[in-house]
Amino acid sequence: QQQVKQSPQSLIVQKGGIPIINCAYENTAFDYFPWYQQFPGKGPALLIAIRPDVSEKKEGRFTISFNKSAKQFSLHIMDSQPGDSATYFCAASGSGGFQKLVFGTGTRLLVSP
Amino acid sequence: NAGVMQNPRHLVRRRGQEARLRCSPMKGHSHVYWYRQLPEEGLKFMVYLQKENIIDESGMPKERFSAEFPKEGPSILRIQQVVRGDSAAYFCASSALRDFYGYTFGSGTRLTVV
Hints:
The structure holds two protein chains of two kinds. By secondary structure, chain A is mostly beta strands. Helices cover about 0% and strands about 50% of the residues of chain A. Chain A is built from no helices and eleven strands. Chain A has strands at about 5, 10-15, 20-25, 35-40, 45-50, 55-60, 60-65, 70-75, 85-90, 100-105, 105-110. In chain A, the strands form two sheets. In chain A, strands 2, 4, 5, 9, 10 and 11 form a six-stranded mixed β-sheet that branches. A five-stranded antiparallel β-sheet of chain A has the order 1-3-8-7-6, with no helix packed on it. In chain A, a hairpin with a 2-residue loop joins strand 6 (about 55-60) and strand 7 (about 60-65). Chain A is globular. Chain A starts with a strand and ends with a strand. The relative contact order of chain B is 0.33. By secondary structure, chain B is mainly β. In chain B, strand 5 and strand 6 form a beta hairpin. Chain B has no helices and eleven strands. In chain B, the strands form two sheets. In chain B, strands 2, 4, 5, 6, 9, 10 and 11 form a seven-stranded mixed β-sheet that branches. Chain B has a four-stranded antiparallel β-sheet with strand order 1-3-8-7, with no helix packed on it. Classes of the chains: A mainly beta, B mainly beta.
């Protein structure tokens, strides 16, 4: 019940394409859903996050879509660029005091020129 | 602000040796979190510490692993008698408040046990 399932494991798109990464969760107590971007040899960096009271959030070329009833959320990268090539992790947690982040297994994205 | 500093970046240990991983939080941050990333997996929570206190160690293996965050100096994650299965990337994050939404991760320590 603490798992966050992420797919696909890897993804290749051409420059300008719109990669979509999906995550699903079971724990209905989760109410904070961040996405992290990780480049090789670096730590994860917070990209964008959403709470269940909204169905969509946009920050620049990155958009999170959230479906509370299906317990699913996804990341869309508009007009993808080779510099977006990285591993993307979804995560989830509860709220109120300290809550552990539960991470998905990651999606390795390659944007070809 | 140098960010969260972890050292060493890479650490090689033989089976049975001890590994010490250090984490200096961002300036002004008094909350430290350790996560472990096994190959081809996401990060998994290990422990949450404040200065001189372990707040939540529910993700720590029961044996061989310990963590501390002394009043002065960096936070230390210590792994005694390492085994091949301990090979992973260990990430430290810090925040200024108990509310972790302000997480900042370091670049990690890659531990290889040979």
